[in-house]
Design goal:
single chain, 277 residues, alpha/beta, 11 helices, globular
């Protein structure tokens, strides 16, 4: 049996695992769903939410556990579990990326997100965040000191981005029941900007020794399949599962997702692939 620590994606919080954790625990495992800083019940202001902030939040959780954990990240927060594994490889049994950003050393999440021309999320951001503006921001704010300076000077509302409400269903939940979109209308929130601009620091000696599994979502309209596979070419994983789902299988097919999560444990007993950094 294993302890799984779940990280939500952009705009969401721990609630997006509400169908998965009970099923997983019914099979004898343990599930911990986190609210990352600035999400859900964690009200950290955007000016204090950086990649390091999120990583430290995860490390505080896994350091409290009696055994190494399986870190599961959806979408954007693949970057967080990558950095957590770099800092605590001995506390991580394995990494599971669920349609998540699998970013190599020296690159940021936004370096890859800007390649995803067919993403319905990228096409439907509020606050005038078109591709050209995001590209300029990615070039400027890859420097941590500039992030922190801007965080001190800019209004809080300019330090976040939002998905336009009309795009919720088609971008995130097109294969889910209507009740999920209704829930999202109430619970989806703004996403702090800074973590997505930050280049990752990964090494073969630390991150590279942690086994990794990728779960690609074949119908994904948010992190599209071509981008998922492009990231996998740069960072091969020990095993790849294919889910015939949109971006949110934790809502559309939680039982199948739990089956695959449990099956992934078999891949965490073998040596990880080489050249993972």
């Amino acid at each position: 049996m294993a302890t799984y620590v779940f990280l939500h994606g952009s705009f969401h919080a721990a609630w997006n695992w509400h169908r998965v954790v009970p099923l997983l625990e019914a099979s004898g495992h343990r599930g911990i769903a986190l609210d990352l800083p600035g999400h859900g019940r964690d009200r950290t202001p955007p000016s204090r939410v950086f990649l390091d902030t999120c990583v430290q939040h995860v490390l505080a959780c896994i350091d409290q556990q009696s055994e190494p954990v399986v870190l599961v990240a959806h979408s954007r927060n693949g970057i967080v579990i990558s950095q957590a594994a770099e800092q605590r490889p001995e506390r991580v049994k394995g990494l599971i990326y669920l349609a998540a950003y699998l970013v190599p050393d020296g690159k940021s999440m936004m370096d890859f997100a800007l390649q995803d021309e067919h993403s319905l999320v990228a096409q439907n951001l509020e606050a005038g965040l078109d591709r050209s503006r995001l590209l300029r921001m990615t070039r400027i704010f890859r420097h941590r000191w500039l992030q922190r300076l801007a965080a001190r000077l800019l209004p809080q509302g300019l330090q976040v981005h939002r998905l336009a409400r009309h795009a919720y269903r088609e971008a995130l939940y097109h294969d889910c029941g209507d009740e999920i979109t209704e829930l999202a209308n109430v619970l989806l929130e703004a996403e702090p900007n800074w973590a997505g601009f930050t280049p990752l620091k990964r090494s073969q000696a630390r991150y590279g020794r942690v086994p990794k599994v990728y779960m690609e979502c074949l119908q994904d309209r948010a992190v599209t399949l071509p981008l998922q596979r492009a990231m996998l070419r740069e960072t091969p994983c020990d095993h790849v599962y294919s889910l015939d789902s949109g971006h949110s299988p934790f809502f559309s097919q939680p039982a199948e997702l739990c089956r695959v999560l449990a099956d992934s444990l078999h891949h965490f007993e073998v040596a990880p692939v080489r050249n993972a950094a």
